[in-house]
Design a protein that fits this description.
mainly alpha; Rhopdopsin 7-helix transmembrane proteins; globular
Length: 316
């Protein structure tokens, strides 16, 4: 008589593979390897494009760290795909299953941070009094710290939960994952809020543009990226807050089609949206920008004019 997957997972530990259903389920060779291979190639292409753009800009003195961040995200996803392929061929290897799950959960936070950075720039350019407000700036910085805290907590509790069968530890891990995903969902609401404020508030006389292209184009790009990020984080939050189900009896939202469409497919859309629209040019701002006028170089031009005037006065 064959043992259930849950029973086999317990007998093969520690570490103990999760016995509850997860989005995508247990991979199969016939279905998952062809699908994940396609995404692997897309992530490799994204990594190559982002690093190429970053290096080209760096040589020109054009610093745009978001391209480097997207490269790092693509590399994390490449590792995720490779681990899932390896897990597919060794389905009872708990270490591979756990590693694939960890990389899948943590990598996307880079994209969330990038989108928030871009949204902050749009708000500061269109509504400088609000966007450059010291309280808001500190709140945004704290939110970035929150992402780091989430990463540390998730890593710690996921690893702790797979090293024991203690139900208390596993329950604590589940609630940490729920709280972390709720935080990330709320974080992803910030970018759309910034975008809406930049559109509905009266035009500020000190508003400015930055980078290349119109502000309208920037808002469209940011709106599309924010939508997909919010959808991904909402889906993740909903599935983790749902009542846990055994791996042998998954819910409809655990289907592998949703895994590839929402968790990976929507990420690919954001990656190539940024690449094809050259977000490194459209969202670039001068290094050291600290206030209204810095993005468009107005303050620098004012300083140059003042210096030229002083020089003329001295010559007279």
């Amino acid at each position: 008589m064959s043992l259930s997957y849950e029973t086999q997972a317990i007998h093969h530990g520690p570490p103990y593979a999760p016995t509850t259903a997860a989005v995508g389920g247990r991979p199969t060779i016939d279905t998952d390897i062809p699908a994940i291979s396609v995404f692997l190639l897309l992530y490799i292409g994204g990594a190559i494009c982002n690093m190429t753009i970053f290096q080209m800009n760096r040589r020109k003195g054009h610093k745009f760290l978001a391209s480097w961040g997207m490269f790092g995200f693509c590399m994390a996803r490449i590792v995720s795909c490779v681990l899932r392929i390896a897990w597919t061929t060794r389905i009872h290897n708990a270490r591979l299953a756990i590693a694939a799950s960890i990389f899948l959960n943590l990598g996307v936070m880079v994209v969330y941070a990038v989108v928030l950075v871009l949204a902050s720039r749009v708000l500061r350019a269109t509504q400088p009094r609000l966007g450059w407000n010291p309280v808001l700036r500190k709140a945004i910085k704290i939110s970035y710290v929150g992402i780091v805290v989430v990463v540390i907590l998730l890593l710690s509790f996921i690893i702790a939960s797979v090293e024991t069968l203690n139900q208390g530890v596993r329950t604590a891990s589940l609630w940490v994952q729920r709280a972390s995903n709720l935080y990330l969902l709320l974080l992803n609401c910030v970018a759309p809020i910034f975008l809406i404020l930049s559109c509905i508030l009266p035009k500020d006389p000190e508003s400015e543009n930055f980078g290349s292209g119109s502000m309208r184009t920037k808002k469209i790009i940011l709106g599309v990226a924010s939508f997909f990020c919010l959808f991904i984080s909402g889906f993740r939050c909903g599935t983790i807050w749902a009542a846990p189900r055994p791996a042998s009896d998954p819910a409809w939202f655990h289907h592998r089609a949703l895994f590839y469409l929402v968790l990976l497919g929507f990420e690919i859309v954001v990656i190539y949206l940024f690449i094809f629209t050259r977000f490194d040019k459209k969202f670039w701002v001068p290094n050291g920008s600290q206030g209204a006028g810095d993005y468009s170089g107005k303050n620098e031009k004012a300083v140059e004019k003042e210096a030229a005037f002083d020089s003329d006065v001295q010559s007279v």
